[in-house]
Design brief:
homohexamer; alpha/beta; serine acetyltransferase, domain 1; UDP N-Acetylglucosamine Acyltransferase, domain 1; five-stranded parallel sheet; 45% helix
């Protein structure tokens, strides 16, 4: 079997697959450019537009979103114009929520020196920003695009928040890397989460798609690093503190404090070897 | 001691080091461009080429790989033409395996809505894609380049799969961040792995380079989030399910189910303070 | 309420906020470009400059740093010229330390095949590189910029080292993803850290900003994957080995070996269901 | 006098000038990007958009124009929304005129092999395209931008058509370089012009700004290469042919044929030296 | 008539036209990138490739040309593989001719200080380079692409040489702007041409496409600035010198010297007004 | 003879030539980037820098020039540091001259509506800008770079001013395309030149390199379009007006007015055919 035979066969296969699947997804490059423009508009980190340019930048961003949606949703019957109008109508609210998030991070994190530092440098804040934008699109019934946005933020920050999760305001993530927040998670006001926390499902199976599989976290809860909380019926009662490296699959009462009681064996290395 | 003295001394040092080391590595920028082009060719997420352009794009990709290999391996005695031909001859097989991987993810993950969504947005799928390409290069005896590719995917997704690992088809990664799969790991068919799983070595020492140091995972195994499995003699028997946050350094029988039995201490916060 | 009312209100809000906050931060794009140029200068992975160009490249990099600092620190009273001169005077020392780091990684990691491979492909080495540069800026009293640099490296590698941490030479990170090293951590010579390790605070509260909240790790310590060590008074004595998935909030003596003693429950899946 | 004194003085001067003049001009980079997008939309030479994308591309182009105009005309009292609407309402007519221009070039030029070749490769056609767009903006009362567009086309093609000139349809330019068509020129239907032709003013003085200073060329006229026709009262009657290298400052009747009668002296080089 | 009616009508028109015409032309962007790469390969003005990279760069350039040709000529029956092979087989000859051209320019132009300066800075030399490449493609029967290349050079330099012209070696152009050399021109060895020279047709009409319409210039002729020579039967005999601003439509004998005998009227400005 | 033989032979030839010639020229890409930065600094057409950034931008531009000069002049013995200091010390004077040039264009051209329009859109003004910068470098003894700059401007505007020409202030170019001003030309104050004007040499021969070969134009002269003035002894006396399409090889007295007296033959086309 020679090379060109193989190559031809691959090419035939690709063409068949590409044509069949192509229409159902937006360009990921366009999606990410739109996101970048919008985030820079809300939280400019490179240069400030002229005062008179704000309105035009926003209008252009709106057209870009409309074009992205049209590129793969035109035959879907979704009211794209309505979705876009609703999204931009809601943008002020999202922005105000994000400022509350940033303020809370600055207020709690001893390593933060200003809200500005949080906004320009914290990956956790970037992840929340993309989540709030993707979540709103998701709630408006848009498929695929919210996942492209959230997985882009996931790649950039290590924080994987499914756009369908419900997260109230303010919300704080510190250090971020390795956080997973599943699609049916519900998180109350004023919750703080540290690196490596998973809010996940007890079991993973396709026929659970319509069921609440991820935990509920009530107001004013803190969850320290590397803790795993699983299950759709698991509720972390308000004002609780969950320590680091805890593995929880059951609900805890409000005002609880949960500790890991790992036993360690400590030897002198002479003994150990 | 003034500045220019220091600067001159740094520059002398750099020149000496650079000249000595330079010839042994490919341009990482060229390597990543080649990878991007190839992944876009297999799974186009931005635009579909004209039907007549497929063959030319593939040919160009082939020349790019050949040029990258020539740039640092010419004096090595490796048969570069042969390696390149073999790689592209194998590409159809790799592509078919990747489609099986994507289908499996879609089949198991309740959050996935289509194979397409998996392909365009799942970091886990991207990591598997880069692994299968880098692994083939590695098996053809190519040094350095496979690591550049796999570490690029690692940076982008948080999934660190050494190109020398052996992973059968289909293979599923969900959420991805924090997964480590060591160089001598062997993974069977139809295995699923969640975020934060390590398949690692018990000890790390240079003189172990030639020894199997990482586990074997047999067919149909599921390993939930944050579990650590260590050791070259550790075998996870087929059809087993390893729960989340487990720490395993010994083999388990086929058909086992392994649970973490962490004890937690739960106090009312009044008591706790 | 129609769309343009909402939009106008958002725009007014943005203008007010942006003008108030704008002056206090550098352009993140300029900051990252400067970092990229400097890292490529020290460890060229794409092409080697002409021998006669080294001095000019360095001078240009110096002007770029000076311009970045001027853009947000001019009214601060910081002696920017002095800071820049000191930074470039110290660069040779930083470079020599980084070569020691790279050599150690190559020496210990059985998967590494050369120092060059480490330099061009290891995310852990990249994270250390950015840390050593950001740390020096931080020690010179520069705000914000060091965080932008370290969080950029965090996003790229999953390794979050606060620029204020003190880390001696050589230092080794392997696999990297999910490592967190807090602002007041002190790490001695010849320490090795694996993926998922946290060196963190026991509690997080803003009024602790001036207090040592993160551990001290003495010389020749190895900390394996997913281990969490918390607290400003926690000291890991020299020559100790801390096993994987350990959760430590107390000091250990020099020469200790610490094991995780998790109990697992292992069932046959027939029984389990 | 040392260097920094000079530099400081230059910088003060620049700041004063820039601030005074800045508000009155659009970004030339934005202007040219807008033009490129629009020309690519009308005459795509790189790739064809999806059928469903046409409308969105046009809408985006419209926002871009609006933003450019707002950036320097907001305080002018010009009805920018109205101007933009009128421009895009007229675009179909402009496009149809341009196709007539291209067809005529293909019909007359023996070197052209298809209308397509004319559209993708003829600088003369590009110059006419930019003229028809800039002229429409100019007629809508827009200052500065039309000149930026026409001078950009001038730089690219060597054809300098003032946007205020009136040129009927179809119009043919061949070879193009060195053509100058002044601001008050009037050109009828079906006129052809070759390289190096000037339709200029007899005298140049600022107080002539409001007066017709450039010629009128009636329908069906051909003007061959390097001919100069000057003066606001000069009328080239319909159906005339003006030969190459003619210098004309007076009107000619309809149906005229005008020749250059240069005398040449021809010597044998033996005699000449 | 409202705006969207107009816009819809334009869009329908564009779609109809684009679909009909699209297949017959290459991407001009790809064409120009290919040209830039090839010219940089022959006359590098930015950096020198590694010695081992030359062959790969050339191979890649070859694939790029093949892909461009395939994109619009696949159904044409042209032997694209053969054309590409022939082109690259002839490249050494073209390169040697271009070096002779550059040497001649340096030898004759008192303003040139080295062959290198000619190669990196002379637009005339750039125009000859593109002509020799485009001409070879044209001789191999390739349509459209040679015109895209030559009109790109025309835009960049003001020198318009039709790719079908026949120009022997060496050939010298100085100052360049405004030169037009028609499709059926024949130019001998060692000819020099200055700015504004036209070698054109006496009449322009489509049915002349198959006839020689442009002059023949024999060996060792010099044609000074702004001279126009017209007609397919016009032959400038060898060793002749044609002065500046001459208008010639008839042949001249070998060894002739032709002068312009313009009479000027010179007045004192007092008298003149 | 097969293809690879030919290719190998070309590659050998290129390597030999490139290595021999390479060291003597700067990167044209770097040169043009430096020029663009400097022109944008003097005449910003895209965005205004922060007030505090001016000094840094200028310093960076200075380093860029120094690096370009070092890249090809290091072994030349030229005092590069001195040249760079002198150039930037003179920049304020050059800038003031350029503002006088722009004011004059605005004052004389009835088509200009403001100095700003001239600065952002007139190719003639761009050509003068590049000339004044290149000329200063040339006077400081810098080879090659000034030609790269002036030929870049030539390509962009069709105006070819040799950097060694001496042109006083103010100087006005309108329409520009096709202007040639030779290396030994001397132009006085307040001179205006229109499209297609050549100030050239009577004869072109290498051994004239050291001799004044191009005309002298005294103060307050106007030279209209397409006029050619040749010869190193030709002096256009002050206050003269030279009409369009004149061909002059002798001096004219101050206060002269020179007309073209071309005779035309005008026929009715009936007669003519």
């Amino acid at each position: 079997m020679n090379q060109s035979t193989n190559t031809q066969s691959l090419i035939s296969l690709l063409k068949k697959t590409h044509n069949a699947e192509w229409e159902a997804t937006p360009s990921s490059r366009d999606a990410i450019r739109w996101l970048d423009d919008l985030v820079q508009f809300l939280f400019p980190s490179n240069h400030l537009p002229k005062s008179s340019a704000y309105e035009g930048i926003l209008k252009k961003n709106q057209i870009d979103l409309e074009n992205i949606l049209l590129s793969y949703l035109e035959p879907s019957g979704i009211d794209i114009t309505g979705v876009v109008a609703d999204f931009y109508n809601s943008l002020e609210g999202i922005y105000q929520n994000l400022r509350l998030d940033a303020s809370k991070i600055n207020e709690y994190d001893p390593a933060a020196t200003s809200v500005n530092e949080v906004i320009v440098s914290y990956p956790g804040f970037y992840a929340i920003t993309v989540y709030r934008l993707a979540n709103h699109l998701s709630r408006l019934g848009i498929p695929v695009l919210p996942r492209i946005l959230s997985e882009f933020a996931h790649g950039k920050t290590g924080v994987d928040i499914h756009p369908n999760a419900q997260i109230d305001v303010p919300f704080m993530i510190d250090h971020g890397t390795g956080i997973v927040i599943g699609a049916t998670t519900i998180i109350g006001k004023n919750v703080s989460i540290y690196q490596g926390v998973t809010l996940g499902a007890l079991q993973v199976a396709k026929d659970l798609a319509e069921i609440k599989r991820h935990p509920t976290v009530e107001d004013n809860v803190i969850i320290y690093a590397r803790t795993t909380i699983l299950g759709g019926d698991t509720v972390i009662g308000k004002n609780s503190v969950i320590g680091g490296s805890v593995f929880l699959t059951k609900s805890v009462e409000p005002n609880s404090q949960v500790f890991n009681t790992h036993q360690l064996r400590i030897l002198n290395r002479q003994e150990a070897s």
